[in-house]
Amino acid sequence: MDLGIEGLRVLVTAGAAGIGRAVAEAFAEEGAKVFTCDLDEAGLATLPAGIGHRRADVADRHEVAALFEAALAQLGGLDVLVNNAGIAGPTGRLEEINPEDWDRCLEVCLTSQFNCARLAIPHLRRSGNASIVNLSSAAGRHGFALRAPYAAAKWGVIGLTKSLAIELGDDGIRVNAILPGLVAGDRQRRVLEAKAQQKGISFTEMERLAFSFTSIKDYVTPRQLADQILFLASPRGRTISGQAISIDGDTRMLS
User: Fold this and answer.
1) What would the DSSP string read from start to end of 197-222?
2) Which one of 3, 17, 113, 120 has the largest count of C-beta atoms within 10 Å of its C-beta?
3) Beta-bridge partners for 9
4) Residue 187's pLDDT band (boundaries 50, 70, 90)?
5) pLDDT tens digits, residue range 86-96?
6) CA 153, chain centre distance (Å)
7) From 102, 144, 150, 213, the catalytic residue
8) From CA 109, how far away is CA 138, in angstroms rounded?
9) Domains of the chain (ranges plus CATH)?
Protein backbone atom coordinates (compact mmCIF):
# COMPACT_ATOMS: atom_id res chain seq x y z
CA MET A 1 0.00 0.00 0.00
CA ASP A 2 1.38 3.38 -1.00
CA LEU A 3 0.78 5.64 1.99
CA GLY A 4 1.76 8.75 0.08
CA ILE A 5 4.30 9.95 2.63
CA GLU A 6 7.39 10.28 0.45
CA GLY A 7 9.12 13.53 1.35
CA LEU A 8 7.15 13.95 4.59
CA ARG A 9 9.27 15.79 7.17
CA VAL A 10 9.24 13.87 10.45
CA LEU A 11 10.74 14.40 13.89
CA VAL A 12 10.76 11.37 16.21
CA THR A 13 11.96 11.67 19.78
CA ALA A 14 14.01 8.88 21.40
CA GLY A 15 14.84 7.10 18.17
CA ALA A 16 18.04 5.25 19.04
CA ALA A 17 16.30 1.99 19.97
CA GLY A 18 12.98 0.28 20.57
CA ILE A 19 9.73 1.87 19.39
CA GLY A 20 11.34 5.15 18.37
CA ARG A 21 13.92 3.47 16.18
CA ALA A 22 11.27 1.30 14.51
CA VAL A 23 9.20 4.42 13.79
CA ALA A 24 12.14 6.42 12.42
CA GLU A 25 13.28 3.55 10.19
CA ALA A 26 9.75 2.82 8.95
CA PHE A 27 9.23 6.44 7.90
CA ALA A 28 12.62 6.49 6.18
CA GLU A 29 11.82 3.26 4.30
CA GLU A 30 8.70 4.97 2.90
CA GLY A 31 10.75 7.89 1.62
CA ALA A 32 10.10 10.38 4.41
CA LYS A 33 12.78 12.79 5.65
CA VAL A 34 13.48 11.86 9.25
CA PHE A 35 15.29 13.44 12.18
CA THR A 36 15.53 11.93 15.65
CA CYS A 37 17.19 12.40 19.01
CA ASP A 38 18.15 10.36 22.06
CA LEU A 39 20.45 10.32 25.06
CA ASP A 40 22.02 7.15 23.66
CA GLU A 41 24.65 8.53 21.32
CA ALA A 42 26.03 5.08 20.52
CA GLY A 43 22.59 3.95 19.40
CA LEU A 44 22.10 7.06 17.30
CA ALA A 45 25.41 6.37 15.54
CA THR A 46 24.06 3.02 14.28
CA LEU A 47 20.97 4.47 12.59
CA PRO A 48 20.73 4.02 8.81
CA ALA A 49 22.35 6.70 6.69
CA GLY A 50 19.94 9.49 5.89
CA ILE A 51 18.24 9.66 9.27
CA GLY A 52 19.45 12.85 10.91
CA HIS A 53 20.04 12.81 14.63
CA ARG A 54 21.23 14.76 17.64
CA ARG A 55 21.76 13.98 21.30
CA ALA A 56 19.01 15.64 23.35
CA ASP A 57 17.18 15.24 26.63
CA VAL A 58 13.64 16.25 25.68
CA ALA A 59 12.81 16.97 29.33
CA ASP A 60 15.25 19.91 29.09
CA ARG A 61 13.72 22.88 27.25
CA HIS A 62 17.09 24.34 26.27
CA GLU A 63 18.09 21.05 24.65
CA VAL A 64 14.70 20.81 22.92
CA ALA A 65 15.22 24.28 21.43
CA ALA A 66 18.60 23.17 20.04
CA LEU A 67 17.03 19.96 18.77
CA PHE A 68 14.39 21.85 16.82
CA GLU A 69 16.95 24.21 15.36
CA ALA A 70 18.99 21.26 14.06
CA ALA A 71 15.96 19.27 12.88
CA LEU A 72 14.35 22.15 11.00
CA ALA A 73 17.65 23.06 9.36
CA GLN A 74 17.94 19.54 7.95
CA LEU A 75 14.27 18.84 7.21
CA GLY A 76 13.36 22.27 5.88
CA GLY A 77 10.09 22.32 7.81
CA LEU A 78 7.91 19.91 9.73
CA ASP A 79 4.89 17.76 8.92
CA VAL A 80 4.93 15.17 11.69
CA LEU A 81 5.98 15.11 15.33
CA VAL A 82 6.15 11.72 17.05
CA ASN A 83 6.47 12.22 20.81
CA ASN A 84 7.94 8.85 21.67
CA ALA A 85 10.38 9.58 24.50
CA GLY A 86 9.62 7.91 27.79
CA ILE A 87 11.09 6.00 30.70
CA ALA A 88 9.69 3.20 32.82
CA GLY A 89 10.01 5.12 36.07
CA PRO A 90 10.22 3.56 39.53
CA THR A 91 8.42 0.42 40.68
CA GLY A 92 7.08 0.42 44.22
CA ARG A 93 4.35 1.55 46.56
CA LEU A 94 3.64 5.25 46.37
CA GLU A 95 4.92 6.05 49.87
CA GLU A 96 8.22 4.33 49.02
CA ILE A 97 8.88 6.23 45.80
CA ASN A 98 11.67 8.79 45.77
CA PRO A 99 10.13 12.18 44.86
CA GLU A 100 12.99 12.83 42.42
CA ASP A 101 12.10 9.60 40.59
CA TRP A 102 8.47 10.74 40.40
CA ASP A 103 9.52 14.11 38.97
CA ARG A 104 11.84 12.60 36.39
CA CYS A 105 9.23 10.12 35.19
CA LEU A 106 6.64 12.84 34.60
CA GLU A 107 9.21 15.16 33.02
CA VAL A 108 10.28 12.59 30.44
CA CYS A 109 6.94 10.87 29.79
CA LEU A 110 4.64 13.91 29.81
CA THR A 111 6.35 17.30 30.05
CA SER A 112 8.69 16.41 27.17
CA GLN A 113 5.64 16.15 24.92
CA PHE A 114 4.63 19.70 25.89
CA ASN A 115 8.20 20.86 25.30
CA CYS A 116 8.24 19.48 21.77
CA ALA A 117 4.65 20.21 20.74
CA ARG A 118 4.84 23.90 21.64
CA LEU A 119 7.80 24.36 19.29
CA ALA A 120 6.38 22.12 16.58
CA ILE A 121 2.95 23.71 16.26
CA PRO A 122 3.97 26.93 14.44
CA HIS A 123 5.74 24.83 11.80
CA LEU A 124 2.96 22.23 11.55
CA ARG A 125 0.51 25.04 10.76
CA ARG A 126 2.40 25.55 7.49
CA SER A 127 2.09 21.88 6.49
CA GLY A 128 -0.52 20.42 4.18
CA ASN A 129 -0.51 17.14 6.11
CA ALA A 130 0.21 17.94 9.75
CA SER A 131 0.09 15.38 12.51
CA ILE A 132 1.23 14.83 16.10
CA VAL A 133 1.36 11.31 17.49
CA ASN A 134 1.92 10.95 21.23
CA LEU A 135 3.00 7.70 22.84
CA SER A 136 0.82 6.83 25.82
CA SER A 137 0.38 3.29 27.13
CA ALA A 138 -2.16 0.74 28.27
CA ALA A 139 -1.20 2.22 31.64
CA GLY A 140 -2.89 5.40 30.42
CA ARG A 141 -6.21 3.60 30.35
CA HIS A 142 -5.96 1.19 33.30
CA GLY A 143 -4.74 1.52 36.83
CA PHE A 144 -1.25 0.12 37.35
CA ALA A 145 -0.37 -0.86 40.90
CA LEU A 146 3.25 -0.21 41.92
CA ARG A 147 3.73 1.96 38.80
CA ALA A 148 1.83 5.13 39.80
CA PRO A 149 4.28 7.69 38.31
CA TYR A 150 4.27 6.00 34.91
CA ALA A 151 0.51 5.52 34.87
CA ALA A 152 -0.12 9.13 35.95
CA ALA A 153 2.11 10.42 33.16
CA LYS A 154 0.49 8.22 30.52
CA TRP A 155 -3.03 9.23 31.58
CA GLY A 156 -1.78 12.80 31.26
CA VAL A 157 -0.65 12.12 27.69
CA ILE A 158 -4.21 11.24 26.73
CA GLY A 159 -5.52 14.46 28.29
CA LEU A 160 -2.89 16.44 26.40
CA THR A 161 -3.75 14.63 23.16
CA LYS A 162 -7.50 15.19 23.43
CA SER A 163 -7.05 18.86 24.34
CA LEU A 164 -4.58 19.55 21.52
CA ALA A 165 -6.81 17.80 18.98
CA ILE A 166 -9.58 20.28 19.80
CA GLU A 167 -7.25 23.29 19.88
CA LEU A 168 -5.56 22.49 16.58
CA GLY A 169 -8.46 21.14 14.56
CA ASP A 170 -9.11 24.48 12.86
CA ASP A 171 -5.45 24.52 11.80
CA GLY A 172 -5.82 21.14 10.11
CA ILE A 173 -3.41 19.52 12.59
CA ARG A 174 -4.55 16.14 13.83
CA VAL A 175 -3.37 14.77 17.17
CA ASN A 176 -3.61 11.16 18.32
CA ALA A 177 -2.21 8.92 21.03
CA ILE A 178 -0.98 5.35 20.72
CA LEU A 179 -1.45 3.04 23.72
CA PRO A 180 0.90 0.05 23.48
CA GLY A 181 0.43 -2.97 25.72
CA LEU A 182 3.22 -5.42 26.47
CA VAL A 183 5.92 -4.48 23.95
CA ALA A 184 8.70 -6.87 23.02
CA GLY A 185 12.08 -5.58 24.17
CA ASP A 186 14.50 -5.03 27.03
CA ARG A 187 12.49 -2.28 28.73
CA GLN A 188 9.39 -4.44 29.05
CA ARG A 189 11.49 -7.27 30.43
CA ARG A 190 12.98 -4.95 33.06
CA VAL A 191 9.51 -3.76 34.07
CA LEU A 192 8.25 -7.31 34.50
CA GLU A 193 11.40 -8.28 36.42
CA ALA A 194 10.91 -5.35 38.81
CA LYS A 195 7.26 -6.22 39.37
CA ALA A 196 8.13 -9.89 39.90
CA GLN A 197 10.63 -8.87 42.56
CA GLN A 198 8.06 -6.64 44.28
CA LYS A 199 5.51 -9.46 44.28
CA GLY A 200 8.01 -12.12 45.31
CA ILE A 201 7.38 -14.33 42.26
CA SER A 202 9.48 -15.52 39.32
CA PHE A 203 9.73 -13.68 36.01
CA THR A 204 7.87 -16.54 34.29
CA GLU A 205 5.02 -16.29 36.78
CA MET A 206 4.89 -12.52 36.35
CA GLU A 207 4.82 -12.83 32.57
CA ARG A 208 2.04 -15.41 32.76
CA LEU A 209 0.06 -13.15 35.10
CA ALA A 210 0.46 -10.15 32.77
CA PHE A 211 -0.80 -12.10 29.76
CA SER A 212 -3.73 -13.55 31.75
CA PHE A 213 -5.43 -10.15 31.31
CA THR A 214 -5.04 -9.99 27.52
CA SER A 215 -7.00 -11.73 24.76
CA ILE A 216 -3.99 -12.06 22.45
CA LYS A 217 -1.25 -13.59 24.54
CA ASP A 218 1.74 -12.24 22.69
CA TYR A 219 3.99 -9.22 22.80
CA VAL A 220 3.32 -6.22 20.57
CA THR A 221 6.27 -5.52 18.29
CA PRO A 222 7.73 -2.04 17.77
CA ARG A 223 7.09 -2.43 14.04
CA GLN A 224 3.36 -2.95 14.63
CA LEU A 225 3.29 0.37 16.47
CA ALA A 226 5.30 2.01 13.70
CA ASP A 227 2.85 0.79 11.05
CA GLN A 228 -0.08 2.38 12.91
CA ILE A 229 1.80 5.64 13.35
CA LEU A 230 2.69 5.79 9.65
CA PHE A 231 -0.96 5.34 8.70
CA LEU A 232 -2.07 8.10 11.08
CA ALA A 233 0.56 10.44 9.67
CA SER A 234 -0.33 9.68 6.06
CA PRO A 235 -3.05 11.39 4.01
CA ARG A 236 -5.14 8.24 4.54
CA GLY A 237 -5.47 9.24 8.19
CA ARG A 238 -6.58 12.80 7.41
CA THR A 239 -9.80 12.65 9.47
CA ILE A 240 -8.47 10.66 12.43
CA SER A 241 -7.83 12.96 15.38
CA GLY A 242 -8.34 13.07 19.12
CA GLN A 243 -8.10 9.29 19.38
CA ALA A 244 -6.42 7.10 22.00
CA ILE A 245 -5.69 3.98 19.97
CA SER A 246 -4.88 0.79 21.86
CA ILE A 247 -2.47 -1.71 20.33
CA ASP A 248 -2.33 -4.13 23.24
CA GLY A 249 -3.83 -7.51 22.40
CA ASP A 250 -7.07 -6.43 24.11
CA THR A 251 -5.60 -5.72 27.53
CA ARG A 252 -8.34 -5.59 30.17
CA MET A 253 -6.18 -4.93 33.21
CA LEU A 254 -2.58 -4.38 34.23
CA SER A 255 -1.28 -6.53 37.05
Assistant:
1) HHHT--HHHHHHHHHTTBSS-SPBPH
2) 113
3) 33
4) confident
5) 999 999 999 99
6) 12
7) 150
8) 14
9) 9-181+221-246 (3.40.50.720)
